[in-house]
Write a structure and sequence with these properties.
By secondary structure, this protein is an all-alpha fold. The protein is built from eight helices and no strands.
């Protein structure tokens, strides 16, 4: 059973003010997840917000047509990935990657396992620099590969869930992840070596 079914059905049945209330609950449940995915694909906070806003605009207009042929979360992720990729293709978002506003609440930025309060300023600056370099490496990937990395490593989706969200075969998911990992491996190993050996 889809954990969002009851809330989605409330949106589908509701009228005007009740609809806005029910949709507001869905928005609260998904806003961070959608932003995390769009940020990883676009590479900066401003474009991520634009893509997230587009995602919720589509959900607001089309939620009544959702028929639970897949999980609601899969549909949300598909819309978010497509909105971010479309924004990049249109060339609307050509800003430089930035961690400004883009690291709050992101699971992928949990590279630092220590509590920040226990680190000195030098180590804190190094962790921030590492996060920026990781984001730059991810931003160098194609938008499709960024999307699959975000779903797997930021959102923690299984291969099957990614396959559902992107409407592609399990083999395609594995192939794209392998290509993305291969592209990131050389860059990130140099970054990590430099970061931890310094």
């Amino acid at each position: 059973m889809d954990p969002d079914r009851e809330l989605v059905e409330r949106c589908q049945r509701a009228r005007s003010r009740e609809y806005r209330t029910a949709f507001g609950e869905l928005y609260e449940a998904y806003k961070d997840r959608v932003y995390n995915v769009t940020y990883r694909i676009t590479g900066n906070a401003s474009d991520a917000l634009d893509a997230a806003q587009e995602t919720f605009g589509i959900l607001f207009r089309k939620i009544r047509s959702f028929r639970f042929r897949s999980k609601f979360s899969s549909w949300v992720y598909r819309i978010a990935v497509n909105a971010a990729i479309d924004l990049k293709r249109r060339g609307v978002g050509r800003r430089l990657p930035s961690s400004e506003g883009g690291t709050e609440g992101l699971q992928a930025d949990a590279v630092d396992i220590e509590d920040k309060r226990t680190r000195g300023p030098v180590r804190e600056a190094g962790a921030s620099e590492l996060e920026e370099e990781v984001q730059r490496a991810v931003s160098a990937l194609s938008p499709k590969l960024r999307g699959i990395i975000a779903l797997r490593h930021v959102e923690g989706l299984s291969y099957e869930e990614i396959s559902q969200a992107l409407r592609c075969s399990l083999g395609t998911v594995k192939s794209r992840l392998a290509r993305a990992h291969s592209a990131l491996e050389a860059t990130l190993s140099r970054v990590l070596d430099r970061h931890f050996l310094d």
